[in-house]
Amino acid sequence: MNPNIQKLYNIASKPERFIIGLMSGTSFDGLDVALCKIKGSGPETEVELVQFETASYQNDFREELKTIFSRRDADLEKVCLLNEWVAIQHAKIINDCLQKWGYSKNDIDLIASHGQSIYHAPKFLHGKEKFPNATLQIGDGDHIAVNTGIITISDFRQKHIAAGGEGAPLAVYGDYFLFSKKGENRIMLNIGGIANFTFLPGDLDGTKIFCTDVGPGNTMMDAFVQKHFPGKYFDEGSALANKGKVNDDLLKELKAHSFFAGDFPKTIGPELFNLSYLQNAIERSPSKSISKEDTMATLNRFSAETTADAIKSCIEKNESYSIYTSGGGMHNPLLMENIKSQLPGMKFYTTDVLHIAPDAKEAVLFALLANECVCGEKINVGKGRNKIPSVTMGKISFPS
Predict the structure, then answer these.
(1) pLDDT at residue 380 is higher than 90
(2) 102, part of any domain
(3) In Å, how far from its chain's centre is CA 198?
(4) Measured CA angle at 220 (ends 214, 223), to 5 deg
(5) pLDDT digits (tens, 9 = 90+) for 195-209
(6) What is the rounded average pLDDT for all residues in the chain?
(7) Structurally, how many domains does the chain consist of?
(8) Which of 139, 166, 294, 302 measures 20 to 30 Å from 82, CA to CA?
(9) Hey, which residues does 200 pair with through a beta bridge?
């Protein structure tokens, strides 16, 4: 028997596993590295976040990614080169974290790598009848495994698509296992580059669970800041948006896209919500001349209203709901104020109260998906409904 197969069998048989979850989002701010201790699997999963760090990317790393990110005219040679290069950089970050935390590679059972998304193409967006949903993440798992000496699980989104999904959002599986609670309707709201949420019913009826993207979270605001305010990567403390005033004409045009009227669940990315989308909305708007600060205030309200509208469209009037937030957008005070103002009566928390740091949540959830890949059984979420395939995900890469 291949000794790596034997090792994988031994890992699956352990009462608990140490798994590093990695998440690199569309904001290119850095790599989230979450060291998790995981017991059990499926609904019996227990997770302890042992260590967490966001390793900031250097400007060179960001600029290289931007040359191929969300671009239909991307250089194929550059895609090939960055596929390996990103993985090597991520492996170095992992090795540095382990040294800093006082762990060796032998202490870690698995690495769960989301990779770096460079293009997301659900069928409704690309519109080509003969082609299915598609998505592409770079940062090859073999290179991470070889450069760390740790078995690596990666490329999770492909199985989701192969089984009938759109490749996103994947948070529903971990949200269901970790955060469902009898007697409380929970909305797990993650505001990253794209905003998404998972609905977890208080009656624990799995057929009601669903997860959906709802529109832009930070992606358009971040892109606007990076273009018009050199040296800044995001609107820290909502400082820019707070100086502006919402332009109602522009807001109306921003919200006019058919995506927002589509049924749940659905997925989207910066392939739609980008600066070209903004420019087209400005050109359709009666207000042709809009200050940068007013644009930022309007983009902030746009993200807030589309998020709140999506939540309002799927809740029952006579039910109570609790919203648990995570992701970079929760640090934008004006964005959170705008969302809360649209959802009066809702109780808002962060996932801190559920013992998972909000900034670490996505990396933790990928660690959980790796745990399911190796030792879980069939995932039965929604019983195949709501575009939630009942599958385990991930491709296994051995160090040697």
Answers:
(1) no
(2) yes
(3) 12
(4) 150
(5) 999 999 999 887 788
(6) 93
(7) 2
(8) 166
(9) 186
Tokens 């760390």 locate to 148
> Are 115 and 210 members of one domain?
no
- Residues in the chain, total: 400
Domain of residue 23, residue span:
3-168+361-382+393-397
Angle subtended by helix axes 292-312 and 333-342, to nearest 10: 40
Q: Are residues 255 and 274 in the same domain?
A: yes
Q: Is 387 within a domain?
A: no
Whether 160 and 179 map to the same domain: the answer is: no
130 with 195, same domain: the answer is no
pLDDT at 115: 97
pLDDT for residue 391: 85
Alpha-carbon 275 to chain mean position = 20
Same-domain status, 102 and 57: yes
Residues 149 and 7 in one domain: yes
Would you say 20 and 113 are in contact if contact means Cβ atoms under 8 Å apart? no
Judgement on whether residues 247 and 340 belong to the same structural domain of the protein: yes
**266-324 pLDDT per residue, tens:** 889 999 999 999 999 999 999 878 999 999 999 999 999 999 999 998 888 888 999 99
Query: 152 and 271, same structural domain?
Result: no
Q: Tell me how far apart the alpha carbons of residues 10 and 327 are, in angstroms, rounded to a whole number.
A: 34
Check whether 151 has a pLDDT greater than 90.
yes
Please give the backbone phi and psi of residue 20, each rounded to the nearest 5 degrees, phi first. -95, 120
Inform me whether the pLDDT recorded for 256 exceeds 80. yes
Angle between helices 292-312 and 219-228 (to 10 degrees): 170
CATH code (residue 71): 3.30.420.40
Tokens standing for 99? 């040294």
